[in-house]
Amino acid sequence: MADGCAIASLGDTSVMVTAVAKTRPPSLSSFVPLTVDYREKAAAAGRIPTNYLRRELGFTEREILTSRIIDRSVRPLFPSSYNWETQLVCNLLAVDGVQDPDVISINAASAALAVSDIPWNGPVGAVRVGMVDNNMVVNPNRKEMNASVLNLVVVAADMNLVVMLDATAECVLQPEFLKAIKTGVKEAQAIVGALKSLRKNYGKSVRLLEKKEISPEIVEAVASLATVRVSDVLQDSSYDKIARDNAVGEVRNDVVETLKEAYPDGQAQVLEAFNMLVKSTFRNLILEQRVRCDGRTPSQLRPISCETDVFKPLHGSSIFQRGQTQVFCTVAFDSLDSALKSDPVSIITGGLKEKNFFLHYEFPPYATNETGRAGSYGGGSSGMGPSLKKHSGQLTSEVLESNGSSSMASICGGSLALMDAGVGVTAPAAGVAVGLVTKYEHDTKHLTDYQLLSDILGIEDYMGDMDFKLAGTKKGITALQADVKVPGLPLKVIMEAVLQGFDAKNEILDIMSRTISLPRSVKKPNWPVSEVMLVPVHKRAKFIGYGGRNIKRLVAETGVQVTQIDDTSWNVFAPNSVAMDEAKDLINEFLTEEREPDLQFGAIYNAKIVEVRDIGVMVTLYNNMNPALLHNSQLDQRKVGDPAPERTGNGGGSGDISKVLWARPGERRDAAVKKGAAVNSFVGDTKPRR
């Protein structure tokens, strides 16, 4: 029943993708309303969901990221006039734990769109490239990926055109990275050829795409009124983001008001014609004059400033400012108990059992002078997530102001904050976004002119053809993400983008090094402390305490967290060194051998009730004594059924000791049996009188 459907398999991992597009009159909007839903069902891994309802619930972070990577792979190839609501549903049918299903899903989505009647300029092919022992491995399995220093997903169309790149790496050198991209593009061509053959033999006839043209008369009228004014605004480098937007908005409002009487029913076309004029003017100025709207040259960076140790109570903090983009990054440490434990399905499909380093990227609406719902996004940090052995760590990056490249600014600020927190990163990392403006021959794929732009503004991202994010250290590349807005780019352009981004990244690292270049070596007084303490097996009961009361007291009084490693080792995590010293004193108190007092046979001692049970009460005669049981038969000369007064009602007859006479010879008094009460007991008497 779907417009297109395909199942792709690699090994024993299989994914089904369906494509459905609604048929309705298109609007003038240039936005493609594409939705991609990728789900990893527990049944595909032979498991049952471990949540309370034992059923599939909301989307996981991995499912959301995979949906995005599929979207970025197919969206650029929809025709520019296509705006029908379209949905791709990716259903994981079976997973073998060896092959990752994300690349398979991209190829299945490409196949489903290729055989459908939906207008689409595909197909595309996707491969994963790893690097094991300096050798390129195409579509590596789980075992090979564990040994790989590179995880690169390459999506390419026919004629070696690159559509999407997504990579994390362990500081791969630039030449090796370029080689990996070329390998992936070459291997993807075989998949593209197979999908073209599939579409030829089994594809449906593509539905006709109705395109609503803007009246040439309206286009000419808008151009005559706005071309000069728009050009002046876009060439005035004194404007900042909001001022430029306001200036363009004033021109737009004047044009709409002027043409309102002449075209009363064509207001939507007037607005669309004006937007097209602004975009074409903006792009032509860059291609013809090689100067950007803020006055920079194509490879020039915006002014950069850095600051660390912003707030003293924080474990690590930094502010990174690049032009009108500003991020505030903080680092917080906690115990290993805070590590994220993966569910069984995520372990099978993703291979990650436990994660103790997190990055949270927050983009509040005020950062762009807007209102809306604030949220956060969790992910990794430029492929350089540090290995924390004694703590769990969280790096939070909050965007305070944004005019493009806020995610890359988070890498720079995050690296500064980690070094300020004394985290032993292998090397500082920085990120930069490279943009692109292209010019093609009319209705062809032949590229006639293009210009790469380092450190792009928000307007350059919106009106340009690529957002190429590159991050790394001085030595090599650690992450890359390329979002292409045209139906593929030649390898030559991609290679130049890598080189230009690499140079810009190194320039940023030089500026960052003036603030901090190495992890802080002098400890801050508020840094957490973690130590492994050895407790002999025969003292473990003293360390834990009856019912765990010593551990509970340790946590309550000092704020530390105690985690058992093995039979004799315990990890003690303290929020600071003062708390650790207090915890050590308490632990020494617990483990100190106290001489047991000499108890005289037949003497009377005060005992403390520590627990009330059905069969009697547990009492101690001195500190650190292991509680001893006084059976119900020893509590009174009468028969006692239950020692707890709250469970025996209000009577005082046989079987009820809510009111019991406790007495020494010649002395009588009333006492209730409850936890914490003091009682008198004979030692050595089998039937004591109390």
Your description of this structure?
- This protein is of the alpha+beta class and 690 residues long.
- It folds into 5 domains: 4-202, GHMP Kinase, N-terminal domain (Ribosomal Protein S5, domain 2), CATH 3.30.230.70; 214-290, Polyribonucleotide nucleotidyltransferase, RNA-binding domain (Arc Repressor Mutant, subunit A, Orthogonal Bundle); 304-426, GHMP Kinase, N-terminal domain (Ribosomal Protein S5, domain 2), CATH 3.30.230; 529-591, K Homology domain, type 1 (Ribosomal Protein S8, Chain: A, domain 1, 2-Layer Sandwich), CATH 3.30.1370.10; 604-682, OB fold (Dihydrolipoamide Acetyltransferase, E2P).
- 30% of the residues lie in helices and 27% in strands.
- It is built from 14 helices and 29 strands.
- It has an 8-stranded antiparallel sheet, with helices on both faces. The chain has a 6-stranded mixed sheet with strand order 9-10-11-16-14-15, with helices on one face.
- A hairpin with a 2-residue loop joins strand 10 (316-322) and strand 11.
- The radius of gyration is 35 Å and the shape is elongated.
Whole-number mean pLDDT? 84
Q: What is the strand content?
A: 25-35%
- Look at the helices and sheets and give the structural class: alpha+beta
CATH superfamily of the largest domain: GHMP Kinase, N-terminal domain
CATH top level assignment of the largest domain: Alpha Beta
For the largest beta-sheet, the strand count, sense and barrel status come to: 8 strands, antiparallel
Helix content: 25-40%
> What is the fold-level CATH name, i.e. the topology of the largest domain?
Ribosomal Protein S5, domain 2
In the sheet with the most strands, the strands line up as 6-5-7-8-20-19-17-18
Low-confidence stretches are: 380-384, 648-674, 682-690
- Domains (count): 5
Number of strands: 29
How many H/I helical runs? 14
For the termini, the CA-CA separation is 85 Å
**What integer value in Å does the Rg equal?**
35 Å
Going by CATH, the architecture of the largest domain would be: 2-Layer Sandwich
- Specify the overall morphology: elongated
Enzyme class: transferase
Family: Belongs to the polyribonucleotide nucleotidyltransferase family.
GO biological process, one term: mitochondrial mRNA catabolic process
GO molecular function: 3'-5'-RNA exonuclease activity; polyribonucleotide nucleotidyltransferase activity; RNA binding
